[in-house]
Specification:
Layout lengths: L9 H25 L4 E6 L3 H16 L3 E2 L8 E6 L4 H12 L1 H7 L4 E6 L5 H10 L5 E3 L7 H10 L4 E3 L20 E5 L1 E2 L10 H5 L3 E2 L2 H13 L4 E5 L15 H9 L6 E5 L8 H9 L6 E3 L7 H6 L6 H14 L4 E8 L6 H14 L3 E6 L17 H25 L4 E9 L6 E5 L5 E5 L8 E9 L3 E6 L1
Parallel strand pairs: 1-2, 1-3, 3-4, 4-5, 5-6, 7-10, 10-11, 12-13, 13-14, 17-19
Antiparallel strand pairs: 8-9, 15-16, 15-18, 16-17, 18-19
Helix pairs in contact: 1-6, 9-10, 10-12, 13-14
The protein binds S-adenosyl-L-homocysteine (SAH), iron/sulfur cluster (SF4) and FE3-S4 cluster.
The site of FE3-S4 cluster has 12 residues, from α2 and α7.
């Protein structure tokens, strides 16, 4: 096996620490003059990987002397961490960035920064350069660890800063982190993707697949558990191929080692790619109580013809085999999935095969997407004769079918007692809490605030559309 990971060397991280100190000094001098410390606003679009990256951005900002704010108008630094996965995600970013123009007019010293997946695309960086002159700082996913230096430059150089060079990607260990909560934590175990599904932009904007060392992951998870975190979600675009390039332990073994850590916590992971979902993985979930018996296994389509065109490298039969094995081995296992409607050349016949698969698996929930053409991907060059109206009709049909299944699945929980991690105040009003079951379903129940952050047992009394409610037992 080739050791292909390129880890950011300690000297470079030291340089970045020195930049953090410089920005901190600038802020403290300003603070002494004005009497108030500077504020930063950070917003993430897209997936949990972006949320995890934003936690590093906030960690670095905190070390540079910034306090976080939810009000853009109060911010001295605004950072949008962007997502490129679908056109509507990009449109939302452009809309929100456009709206910052007025903020900048009111407060010309405000630094406006854009980072994340969208910025790693040349045509987007160019558009920002030309059409959004009030944006001061642009950097892609590969430059995350260099944020302190880039911010320092934006603050002191008097010119706009663009760092969007492509790269196979790196791993930076030990970046500061400011986590969004204290109950659930995201832990990336790998970055990038090598699968090149023909519709997907992720491999182009996130670089080659690379895995963190199991040692670093286990250390981080132990620390989180000691700090009192109750749920750890392991992140990667394809966690099932964890470590395959680095001569590391398998993903199943990593899960076993995490589950063996002492403490009251549970583990989730996303995303599993069906082509690499092994029986060993299923057996591991079955054997370890701390691993949630819920598998998010995106199938995308139920048609083998379309799966092939998508370069997913499994058939509907392979997929159903794994589902069958999991149902057999893991009592009460639940599934969720991503489904794409309207991939180029998809016909109604193909789509009906997706519906059939959805009915067969009986997912607890689905994340459904209309195909969106991404510049530079293979599918962008494929001929697509289906009209948008037709695709929307299929999409609605899928939602109806899943709506029915979801209601039936939720109703099946009534009368059962579920282990729920209470994670906040409920929507049903004062005296109610909300939490998530092992299947990640929302559960509302009457309880005292002191139980937030604890595992509780809730007897389900009612199933609503997207949530359950019950009483503490
Ligand atoms: N690595 C994960 C998916 C990451 S992207 C996996 O392979 O399962 C999350 C979801 O966005 C995908 O599962 C897919 O359903 C959807 N998606 C990705 N590219 C898309 C596109 N071009 N148009 C519409 N949906 C897309
Ligand atoms: Fe995209 Fe496919 Fe990689 Fe998932 S596995 S991130 S869908 S290329
Ligand atoms: Fe979007 Fe990038 Fe995640 S494109 S879905 S934020 S990896």
């Amino acid at each position: 096996m080739v050791k292909s990971v390129s880890t950011v060397p300690e000297e470079i991280l030291d340089e970045q620490r020195a930049f953090m100190k410089r920005v901190y000094d600038i802020n403290m001098t300003a603070c002494q003059q004005s009497g108030s410390s500077p504020y930063a606003f950070v917003h993430s679009y897209g997936c949990q990987q972006n949320v995890a990256d934003a936690e590093h951005i906030k960690g670095m900002l905190a070390e540079m002397g910034y306090r976080m704010t939810d009000e853009i108008g109060q911010a001295d630094v605004v950072i949008y961490n962007t997502c490129a996965v679908r056109e509507n995600a990009e449109d939302r970013v452009f809309g929100n960035v456009g709206a910052l123009k007025n903020q900048k007019r009111r407060n010309p010293s405000m630094i406006i920064g854009l980072c994340g997946c969208m910025m790693q695309q040349e045509h987007i960086a160019q558009r920002i350069k030309k059409s959004f002159p009030f944006v001061d700082l642009v950097f892609g996913t590969h430059a995350l660890h260099a944020f302190p230096e880039l911010l320092y430059e934006a603050l002191t150089s008097g010119h706009r800063v663009f760092e969007t060079t492509g790269s196979d990607g790196v791993i930076a260990e030990g970046l500061p982190t400011k986590r969004d909560g204290h109950i659930k934590a995201w832990v990336p175990i790998m970055y990038g993707c090598d699968n090149f599904c023909t519709y997907c932009i992720v491999p182009y904007v996130r670089g080659r697949e690379r895995s963190r060392s199991s040692e670093a992951i286990l250390k981080e998870v132990k620390e989180l558990i000691n700090e009192g975190f109750k749920e750890i979600t392991l992140l990667g675009q394809n966690v099932n191929s964890y470590g395959s390039k680095e001569d590391e332990i398998s993903f199943a073994e990593l899960l076993r080692r995490i589950a063996a850590i002492d403490g009251d916590f549970r583990v989730r992971f996303m995303t599993s790619h069906p082509k690499d979902a092994t029986k060993e993985l299923i057996d591991t979930i079955a054997a370890c109580d701390k691993i949630c018996s819920h598998i998010h296994l995106p199938v995308q389509s139920g048609s083998n013809r379309i799966l092939k065109q998508m370069n997913r490298r499994y058939t509907a039969e392979d997929y159903l085999d794994i589902i069958r094995y999991a149902k057999e081995k893991i009592p009460g296992v639940t599934f969720t999935s991503d489904i794409m409607v309207g991939f180029p050349s998809e016909t109604y016949e193909d789509f009906k095969q997706t519906l059939a698969l959805v009915k067969q698996v009986e997912y607890d929930a689905l994340f459904t997407f209309l195909y969106s053409k991404r510049v530079g991907t293979k599918a962008a060059a494929m001929e697509d004769l289906t009209t948008d109206a037709e695709k929307s009709r299929w999409f609605r049909e899928l939602l109806e079918v899943q709506g029915e299944i979801g209601r039936k699945r939720n109703a099946s929980y009534v009368g059962q007692t579920l282990r729920v991690l209470a994670d906040g105040k409920g929507r049903s009003g004062e005296g109610f809490l909300t939490g998530r079951s092992e299947s990640n379903t929302i559960v509302d129940f009457e309880a005292d605030d002191s139980l937030i952050g604890q595992f509780v047992h809730v007897k389900i009394t009612e199933a609503r559309n997207a949530a359950l409610s019950g009483v503490l037992v």
